[in-house]
């Protein structure tokens, strides 16, 4: 028993070491930092929860959180529906060139977010982007992709483009794990392809969908690269508080308010935990009923 | 998911950046005793390696001149990014206590920001004060601290003037405006005559140009009254005058507010959407490379003035210095290198003629090899001579805040945004003032408004 336990620890040690050094330690250090206040004049003083109370009253942070929450509510269902549809289509076996299709949808995920955003930023361009040129040829005004009203949608489009393939692969992998005798039994019972998809495949995908959903909660609330790059194209639309992560970054690297940024990051982490838990709770209750 | 990884990386960076082994350096109040000539000679003959961060392309040519004169010293030139990215790396290195360069390119506007955090070495002990007259007066004031410290040697400058399209002016019968009133009238006339053309573009993302225009108007937005106090005056009468002038022209639709240095902006310059570019002395060379299709159509003139018939004044946009960074093990060699680079006749001349930096030294500004150039792009006009003359008219008292990044960020989101949205610039100036003073107070400054 004793030697077993010892060798067990030995096996997990490499992971634990990296985990502690790369995750636990930075997190603990950030938590520690968030309790102090370093000023340009006067140095560092212990501030207790002052940074947190300031953050809770910070309208710009609140606006950012609400904005990404709105983003989540609109973008994620859309993206997951698309992923689900393409996973089912590939799995149905009815699709020609299924491999090409699968690869085609997945490729955007392999494109770095920065490159994807730059590319879309160009496509969105109000003066020389292809959409603007097309609209110009048709005598229409250029679609204002980068305007205040459209920005969140334009960004949702980029993120959807990037991650549909990724979620599709998760769902498709889960579909491959469904035993084929279920389909055969259903077919014997007279179920068609649609019925099989609805009654067997989608219920079987529930855990995978939940996984995708949780990833999406985290991804949405931590939006950073896309707004950060689009900021250059539309500086008056995207300010430094556009998303909470962008805000924390600006606080730390523009305002040198590292301690406050740490507190904001922790609060954002708390928001994500709560949102993820809510998703789990709601879906868990539904599956029981 | 990618975002998760990205975030932990960001956290890590955060921690690295924040590991403050803050050494309580002595305050810059009292100058260190001057280095003896014997020590200087010895330092320059001892084999030494210096690291120099700069983003000036091909500056190795001038560095080589120094290495030839002092063969014992080996200078490694590192491009750590232009502007902000370099400053971020510099701050990280300084906080980490290792990896910082010996000498770095620091723009004028960043000197108070870096001297406040004791990141720059006072150059007085290394003979800086004797070089005062080498440089144009206002540039020397820019590198001088509150207690007379010299924080860097000016390398290049950006006195502001107006580049204009002579062909467009001629076509619509517009005379080169001498005052801002004439400029406003010309803006209305031109846009009425051709709705696709704007007299100028005031970029809503370009705090540098805005500060230059404020500078010209004689505004004193920031005054560093003492090491722990700062006067912030961003919505005073002068600022409001400049703000409502530009906000008004933009809201009227006769001046555009497109973001600059973007693809669309380059295209617009080539296409003739803007009839002028209010820019700095580095603008002419820049434009030559960026708007090739308009060769021969541009000319240079001074900025329009607020008062007609008064003394001509201008502001500055851009330009930088070579500063010695705290923590260098070879301050003497580093200081002498920064000095050589920016004062040696051959080096400064090369900087102007081969790196196309607009000079900060009186000698090069008067050198016919520089002022006599008559580029074809400007129809053979001696543009360098024009800007050399403008350099003398730059107001000498302008100061920068000790927290530039924050002030600029807040400007983007208030005043700049008001230009982009055609909303109330006056209210935006109030908001800018409020945000900056709040920040300064949070940072422990005693703020005078």
From TrEMBL, chain A:
InterPro entries: ABC_transporter_permease, MetI-like, MetI-like_sf. It is found in: Cell membrane. The keyword Flavoprotein does not apply. Gene3D superfamilies: MetI-like. Residues 65-279 form the ABC transmembrane type-1 domain. This is ABC transporter permease. It is a multi-pass membrane protein. Its main location: membrane. Keywords: Cell membrane, Membrane, Transmembrane, Transmembrane helix, Transport. It comes from Paractinoplanes deccanensis. It holds the Pfam family BPD_transp_1. Belongs to the binding-protein-dependent transport system permease family.
From TrEMBL, chain B:
Coiled coil: none annotated. SUPFAM superfamilies: Periplasmic binding protein-like II. InterPro entries: Bact_solute-bd_prot1 (IPR050490), SBP (IPR006059). Keywords: Signal. Residues 1-24 form the signal peptide. Transmembrane segments: none annotated. The keyword Ribosomal protein does not apply. This is Sugar ABC transporter substrate-binding protein. The lineage of its organism: Bacteria, Bacillati, Actinomycetota, Actinomycetes, Micromonosporales.
């Amino acid at each position: 028993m004793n030697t077993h336990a010892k060798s067990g620890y030995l096996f997990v040690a490499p992971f634990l070491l990296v985990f502690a050094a790369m995750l636990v330690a930075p997190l603990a250090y950030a938590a520690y930092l968030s309790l102090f206040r370093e000023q340009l004049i006067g140095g560092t003083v212990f501030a207790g929860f002052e940074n947190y109370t300031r953050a809770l009253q910070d309208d710009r942070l609140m606006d950012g959180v609400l904005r990404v929450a709105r983003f989540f509510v609109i973008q994620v269902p859309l993206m997951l529906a698309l992923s689900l549809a393409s996973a089912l289509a590939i799995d149905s076996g009815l699709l020609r060139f299924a491999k090409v299709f699968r690869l085609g949808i997945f490729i955007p995920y392999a494109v770095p977010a920065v490159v994807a955003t730059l590319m879309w930023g160009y496509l969105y361009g109000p003066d020389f982007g292809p959409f603007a040129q097309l609209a110009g040829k048709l005598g229409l005004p250029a679609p204002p992709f980068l305007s205040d009203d459209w920005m969140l949608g334009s960004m949702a489009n980029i993120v959807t483009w990037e991650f549909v393939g990724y979620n599709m692969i998760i769902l498709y992998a889960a579909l491959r794990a469904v035993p084929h005798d279920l389909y055969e039994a259903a077919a014997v019972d007279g179920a068609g392809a649609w019925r099989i998809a609805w009654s067997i495949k989608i219920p079987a995908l529930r855990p995978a969908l939940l996984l995708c959903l949780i990833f999406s909660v985290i991804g949405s609330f931590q939006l950073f690269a896309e707004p950060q790059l689009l900021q250059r194209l539309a500086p008056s639309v995207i300010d430094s508080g556009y998303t909470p992560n962008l805000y924390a970054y600006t606080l730390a690297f523009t305002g040198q308010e590292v301690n406050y940024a740490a507190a904001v990051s922790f609060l954002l982490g708390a928001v994500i935990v709560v949102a993820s838990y809510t998703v789990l709770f709601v879906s868990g209750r539904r599956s029981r009923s | 998911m990618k975002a998760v990884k990205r975030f932990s990386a960001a956290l890590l960076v955060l921690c690295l950046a924040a590991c403050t082994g803050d050494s309580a350096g002595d305050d810059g109040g009292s100058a260190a005793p001057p280095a003896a000539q014997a020590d200087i000679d010895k330092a320059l003959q001892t084999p030494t390696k210096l690291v120099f961060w700069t983003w000036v392309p091909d500056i190795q040519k001038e560095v080589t001149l120094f290495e030839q004169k002092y063969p014992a010293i080996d200078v490694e030139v590192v491009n750590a990014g232009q502007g902000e990215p370099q400053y971020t790396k510099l701050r990280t290195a300084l906080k980490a206590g290792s990896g910082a360069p010996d000498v770095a390119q620091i723009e004028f506007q960043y000197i108070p920001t870096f001297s406040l955090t004791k990141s720059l070495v006072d150059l007085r002990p290394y003979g800086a004060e004797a070089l005062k007259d080498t440089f144009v007066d206002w540039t020397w004031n820019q590198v001088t601290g509150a207690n007379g410290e010299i924080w860097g040697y000016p390398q290049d400058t950006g006195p502001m003037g107006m580049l204009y399209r002579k062909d467009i002016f001629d076509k619509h019968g517009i005379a080169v405006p001498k005052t801002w009133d004439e400029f406003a009238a010309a803006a209305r006339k031109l846009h009425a005559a051709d709705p696709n053309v704007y007299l100028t573009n005031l970029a809503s993302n370009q705090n540098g140009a805005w500060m230059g225009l404020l500078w010209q108007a004689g505004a004193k937005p920031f005054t560093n009254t003492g090491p722990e106090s700062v006067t912030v005056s961003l919505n005073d009468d002068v600022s409001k005058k400049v703000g409502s002038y530009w906000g008004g022209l933009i809201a009227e639709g006769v001046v555009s507010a497109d973001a600059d240095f973007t693809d669309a902006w380059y295209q617009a310059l080539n296409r003739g959407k803007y009839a002028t570019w209010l820019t700095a002395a580095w603008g002419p060379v820049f434009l030559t490379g960026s708007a090739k299709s308009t060769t021969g159509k541009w000319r240079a003139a001074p900025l329009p003035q607020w008062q007609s018939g008064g003394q001509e004044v201008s502001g500055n946009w851009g330009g930088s210095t070579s500063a010695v960074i705290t923590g260098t093990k070879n301050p003497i060699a580093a200081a002498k290198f920064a000095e050589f680079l920016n004062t040696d006749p051959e080096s400064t001349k090369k900087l102007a003629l081969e790196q196309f930096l607009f000079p900060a030294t009186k000698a090069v500004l008067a050198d016919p090899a520089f002022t006599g150039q008559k580029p074809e792009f400007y129809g053979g006009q001696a543009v360098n001579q024009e800007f050399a003359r403008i350099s003398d008219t730059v107001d000498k008292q302008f100061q920068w805040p000790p927290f530039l990044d924050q002030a600029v960020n807040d400007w983007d989101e208030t005043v700049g945004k008001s230009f982009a949205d055609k909303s109330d610039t006056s209210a935006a100036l109030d908001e800018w003032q409020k945000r900056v003073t709040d920040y300064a107070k949070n940072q422990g400054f005693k703020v005078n408004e």
